Amino acid sequence: MAKAYWVATYRSVSNPEALAAYAKLSGPAIMAAGGRILVRGMPVHLYEEGLQQRTVVIEFDSVEQARAAHDSPAYQEALAALAGGAERDIRIVEGV
User: Fold this and answer.
1) Nearest residue to 75 (alpha-carbon basis) of 33, 45, 39
2) Which residue segment(s) compose the domain that 22 sits in?
3) Engineered SS bond to 81: which of 2, 21, 42, 86, CB 3.0-4.6 Å?
4) Cα gap 2→71, rounded to integer Å
5) Structural Rg of the chain based on CA atoms
6) Is 21 within 8 Å of 77 (Cβ atoms)?
7) Do residues 65 and 34 make contact, with C-beta atoms less than 8 angstroms apart?
8) What's a Pfam family this protein contains (predicted)?
């Protein structure tokens, strides 16, 4: 079974306090669901048409585990804390 990666990029953050509240809840929720945070932060260098956006990469043992983490009550509570505080793009991709 291939690992899965949850990739989040932040287009904008309009409420840093909401992002901080989200981060406080989301990390423990994701780790409790089996996620391992591999990358979190701003790019240190950009190539081609890269964007200066906060990026997070989380590894899971499977797509199903990643989806379950996102849909879990604990992560949904974190999302509620973020509500309207950031514009993001989240994708789950399967490893090779």
Assistant:
1) 33
2) 4-43+51-94
3) 21
4) 20
5) 13
6) no
7) yes
8) DUF1330
Burial (Cβ within 10 Å: 0-12, 13-18, ≥19) of residue 7: middle
Tokens of 38: 């591999």
- Beta-bridge mates of residue 81: none
**Does residue 71 surpass a pLDDT of 90?**
yes
Q: Based on the number of CB atoms within 10 Å of its own CB, is 60 exposed (0-12), middle (13-18) or buried (19 or more)?
A: buried
Residues 81-90 have pLDDT tens digits of 999 999 999 9
3-state secondary structure of 7: strand
**Structure confidence by residue, pLDDT tens digits, 15-33:** 999 999 999 999 999 999 9
* Interior angle at CA 53, CA 56 and CA 10, nearest 5: 60
Domain count within the chain: 1
